[in-house]
Amino acid sequence: MWLLTVLLLWVDPTKAGITLQPPWVSVFQEETVTLQCVGPRVPGNSATLWFLNGTATPTSTPSYSIASASDRDSGEYRCRTGLSVLSDPVQLEVRRDWLLLQVSSRVVMEGEPLALRCHAWKNKQVYNVFYYQNGKVIKSFNRNSDLTIPKTNINHNGIYHCSGMGRNRYTSAGVSVTVKELFPAPVLKASVTSPLLEGNLVTLSCETKLLRQRPGLQLSFAFYMGSKTLQGRNTSSEYQILAARSEDSGLYWCECLFSLSFSVSGLQSPTPVWFHFLFYVVVGIMFLVDTVLCVTIWKELKRKKKWNLEIPLDSAHEKKRQEQEEQLQNRVHRQAPQEA
Ligand SMILES: *[C@@H]1O[C@H](CO)[C@@H](O)[C@H](O)[C@H]1NC(C)=O
Ligand SMILES: *[C@@H]1O[C@H](CO)[C@@H](O)[C@H](O)[C@H]1NC(C)=O
């Protein structure tokens, strides 16, 4: 029985994860930061391995505490728990400056949140704070405040910095943030490229390509003509007009929606102690009955990408038909004005 459990875990290894408290990947010298290694453990054994720049550290507890950060703490951290594989790296940077733009992560998957903080040395008050992305102001606050982007998209890629007024106006160094795109905007294609005639079968397909696989990612598609919904959210990326009639002329568009589950990171409030307690009790019981328990906290997200396609259909006028042909051949796609 135990062997079976071990085998099951071995076949489906879980990656450990690192959360930071406070949740920023860069800190000032002398500040405090705690890294927490999250992953399945053998009950009663909290042993954790911590690596800094690829070298094992003496720390063997689930949390890695840095009481007063110094240059020696800068670097790439990874961890693993008893029943997990090595986590993705977290790059911790220790700086000395007047103002520091802190980010919750330097690399985020499209749809995940990103938090920014304009943090002054020794927590000094700064006013009239500006956040910049690629040199342009994106937000200003009279009283200093964090900036949260709840759902990132590729437009959030770039270099961020901030400035704030203390005794003088201070400006932070830039921090590069990368948002990894999951799939490009879909393209709506029609099966018919020759002149559309009444009675024709037209298949519309909403095409997109997943750029990266991700567990918990699901795509679905919706088709519209003008403001009318032709096919609501469905996993099928095709829609058929069985016998086109002149009323079917119009502007068609499709939406590709995704729902994404992702692990709650250090951005959210830390898990309370009772949760850890409950977690160990539950894991213990589950092991006794020889069942594998996977606990991950998932959050559902949706985002839409749209694409338009003009389908004119008019059997009467030759001139119009030529236009149709051109339009269909050129496949003039227009990006929908806004995300819904
Ligand atoms: C880890 O590597 C980074 C960059 O390669 C370096 O700046 C840092 O000092 C290293 N940290 C340690 C503890 O060796
Ligand atoms: C999705 O589309 C298929 C084929 O068009 C259809 O058979 C099915 O009922 C649809 N499902 C939903 C939930 O609308």
Strand elements, count: 27
CATH classification, class level of the largest domain? Mainly Beta
> Can you identify the CATH superfamily of the largest domain?
Immunoglobulins
Write down the domain tally. Answer: 3
Please identify, by name, the CATH architecture of the largest domain: Sandwich
As residue ranges, the low-confidence spans are 1-12, 264-277, 282-301, 314-340
Q: What composes the largest sheet?
A: 6 strands, mixed
Distance between the termini: 51 Å
Average pLDDT: 78
Which ligands, by name, code or SMILES, are bound?
A: 2-acetamido-2-deoxy-beta-D-glucopyranose
Strand content of the residues, in percent?
35-45%
CATH fold type of the largest domain: Immunoglobulin-like
Provide the helix percentage.
10-25%
How do the helices and strands follow one another from N- to C-terminus?
A: HEEEEEEEEEEEEEEEEEEEEEEEEEHEHE
Radius of gyration: 26 Å
Number of helices: 3
Q: Could you say which overall geometry the principal axes of the C-alpha atoms support?
A: elongated
Secondary-structure content class: mainly beta
Family: Belongs to the immunoglobulin superfamily. FCGR1 family.
Pfam families: ig, Ig_2
Subcellular location: Cell membrane
Domain Ig-like: 13-80, 89-178, 184-265
